[in-house]
Amino acid sequence: MPVERQSHIEQAKDAVRRNPGTPAYALLAEHYLERGENDEALKVCQAGFAANPTLERGAVSYLTALRRLGDATTATEVFSRAIAYLPRSARIRLAWALILTDSGREREARMLAREALDLDPVNEEIRALVATLGGAPASVATRPPTAIAVPGMARKPDGAGTLPSPPARPGREVPRPVDNAT
Question: Given pLDDT bands bounded at 50, 70 and 90, which one contains residue 162?
Answer without folding.
Answer: very low
